[in-house]
Amino acid sequence: MTGAVRIGVAVEAACDQYTQGEAAGGWTTGFVEYGVHAAIGIPDWVIDTRRALGCGLTLHPLDMNMAQPEQGTGPWLESLAALVREHEVSALISDAGFWYHGRREGTWFRPPDMNVAAPRCRESATAIAAACGVPFRVENPPLEWLPDAPSLWSFLDEASDAEGVQICLDLSHVLQFERNVHGRGPVLPRSFPWERVAEIHLAGYVKAEFGGRTMYLDQHLADIPPEEFRLLAEVVELRGPERPLDICLEMEPREPGAFVSAVDNIRTALGTAV
């Protein structure tokens, strides 16, 4: 693989295991990704962790449904843009916009209508990217069920077809979507705008029995399964190994060896030292 690969970590607690794992494994953390609420801002421990690692920062807005980001104006977006500028954020990532795309006055609209969600998601992502001056990466969400067995790939294609919008492909969510919604293993399409995939998320899941069915549920405490590393190799081949790529490990705080092991698996999947 000849393109630049950055391996990052989703920081979900104030601890130093990332720095320890980095030192033990001989790899460099390229970025940390933090789930932010614009009204609260970025806590000191995230800033300290980033400083200790000497790396970049990406943000995952968790409160984007509390206002109307698709309008491209307003206090919420102004606060987010200020955070991006102050902390030199390189990208924004979120699947929250998939669920709701207007003022939240009651319960969330679930299950979402993917045909309606895609253009609205694209509109929101485009406005946010333009206001913040960094790419907005539309992430595929975890799903337990959807009517009419829609295509995840059609949604991502339409939702990301705009300037400043990219795709964050969560491989754990891909597995969950294909198994829960379609009852099959994932098959990556050959015809797809793979060049828009700028980031990959790797995380675990758990199985649960419900109504006689086996459901696959998102769980960052679980280990990343081998099949995700196989999918990672396929994605890299499809999008072209020469393209830069961010890979984010979504792993709850655990001992440093777990991160070293995950990075070793990435290296094996990509056939390179990163």
Class from helix and strand fractions? alpha/beta
Strand order of the largest sheet: 3-2-1-10-7-6-5-4
- What portion of residues is helical? 25-40%
Largest sheet: 8 strands, parallel
What is the terminal separation in angstroms?
9 Å
Global outline: globular
The tally of beta strands, per DSSP, is 10
Mean pLDDT: 84
Using only CA atoms, what is the Rg?
Answer: 18 Å
Q: Uncertain spans, ≥5 residues at pLDDT below 50? A: 66-70, 99-109
Number of helices: 9
Kindly describe this structure:
This protein has 274 residues and is an alpha/beta fold. It has 9 helices and 10 strands. The protein has an 8-stranded parallel beta sheet. Strands 8-9 form a two-stranded antiparallel sheet. α7 links the parallel β6 (165-170) and β7 (197-202). α1 crosses α9, α5 runs parallel beside α6 and α8 (226-239) packs across α9. It is globular and about 50 Å long. The N and C termini lie close together (9 Å). 42% of the residues are buried.
